[in-house]
Amino acid sequence: NRIGADLGARTQDRPEGMPRALGAVLPTISKGEVIYAQVRVPHPDPGRPRYLNPTSDLAPNPRVTRMRPAECSHPEVIVCEGAIDALSAATAGYRAVGVLSAAYCDEAVAVALARLPQPLVLALDADEAGQAATARLTALLEARGRTPVHLDIREGDLNDAMRRFEDWPIRLEVAVARATSASRSVGAGIER
Questions:
Q1: What is the CATH number of the domain that holds 164?
Q2: Is residue 31 domain-shared with residue 69, that is, in the same domain?
Q3: For 99-134, how does the pLDDT look when each residue is reduced to its tens digit (9 = 90+)?
Q4: For the chain, how many structural domains are there in total?
Q5: What is the CA radius of gyration of the chain?
Q6: Are both 17 and 101 inside the same structural domain?
Q7: Which residue range is the domain that position 18 belongs to?
Q8: Is 187 domain-assigned?
Q9: N or C: which end of the chain has fewer CB within 10 A?
């Protein structure tokens, strides 16, 4: 996983169509090539977005990004909302797919996920949009014969959960095991 930094428009040139803001640069890499990049603004002003995207003329939005752990310790693929959450899963030894917006949990994303041979664990954000996306994506995956497991984040997102625990890899492993054994994860989540 390659992560970069944008030091701002005064110190760094960028192609036309790329946002001009200070932040973490989160690339989507396919076949060894960067095909897309988001800028994560660390402290956006109220009412401003946390993620900035290039124009579609510069780079079409791939809708998903994949993150791989330094050492893969688990068979499951964690499907979450965004690159930062995908990196959070990867730090715990999981392959991860970050859907670049809850609004993108659609037919195209379901088709791509259904092709993966590994068990799928949905861990989208705890907010209303994330839960609606989980329900939509579950129905689309089940229509393709892939029943995902649900990981209940309880509050915030996967990255928020990671930041709460010093023993994050163990916490996530236990939560995934509980969700998997409960099949639909009723009550199985990441403890506070």
A1: 3.40.1360.10
A2: no
A3: 999 889 999 999 999 999 999 999 999 999 999 999
A4: 2
A5: 17
A6: no
A7: 4-52
A8: no
A9: C
